[in-house]
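Help!! Second protein's tokens look totally different from the first
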Amino acid sequence: MKISNLNEYFSVSDQLRPEDMAALAGMGIKTVVNNRPDNESADQPTSEQLAAAAKASGISYHHIPVVPGNLTADAVQRFRQVVDNADGPILAFCRSGQRSAGLFQASAFGAKTDEEPLNFLQIVGSTLAAAIGVQSRKKMERDLTRGELVQFVIAGVIFTVLFVAGMITFVSYVAQA
């Protein structure tokens, strides 16, 4: 079991075995998401076996199978619902952890919430904070769920143009003095 933490609440792993569930519970994992279809390989345990072991260890278990190279909108939506409703740290797994990481990324970037979209000042503030390296993790996550990528690209381009123009003006002024 090779666990990679994507953030403080979400990790991915390669194939889990039923005997791993007790150790995961001891590590504080509350939810396990299996992204591997049953019978993908001969040596993998079934989802039913994993679900039974998770239940015995007090872990919530969800099976959202994703065929390699075929990430569906339904899988992303179901995955997002599990993540949104989980009670504590989550571990998702597949054969290598890559599909689970991709599913997490797709659900985070494609997520729409009932919250209001970011306003102009929030976009400008986030762009400036990111540009000077002081953007908080909480605000970054807010930006990813409530903002649109194009807004941040435009704000970043405008900031860059203004910054370069300001530097040219400053250097010209200093050179003349």
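Here's the second one for comparison:
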Amino acid sequence: MDRLADGDRAAFAPLFAALYPRAIAVARRRLDDAHAEDAAQRTMTALFARAVEFTPGRPVLPWFYAIAANETHGVARKIRLAERREAPASSAALVPADGDPESALASAETRALVREAVAALDPLSAAAIEADLAGEPRAGPRSPALRKRVSRAYARLRSALGGLDRADVLDGAPARGAEERVLDGTEGGS
């Protein structure tokens, strides 16, 4: 690793041969075989890209395993997000039509519940949730601080709603975008 950190690209082949099986082993603890291969390849790519950050003389394996764990976690997160996106589409047929009185009642109850829970939050959390649900455009990428504020706000809202997450709240209302209209004040109701 010292040679690679010093810019010797020929050192990558023996390093790859020694570390790739370990990258596969780390990834297989958390992912299926196909995704483990992807995570292992991403680990080796990140290792090569970040070789200049390695301090010669330091132990290689702890540094390598940190990269492998981060890349495996990233692949697992992408899989979870993809599954969440597919789940509402597959369960859409189970939601009653908008004209159904039962779904209209459920929608009104959900809007009232969300409105009460958001109103009970501190002002920063309420504003973060309202902005996120309204889909307000932001200039540039979301900063880590903003993402964390929104994450914590949803955690507080989840706690107030008794364990529901944003997807549950949004999927619970049959009318598309009803929560956004409730939170920005354009929706009537209770």
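Reply: Different proteins will give different token patterns, so don't panic. The two ends are 65 Å apart (CA to CA).
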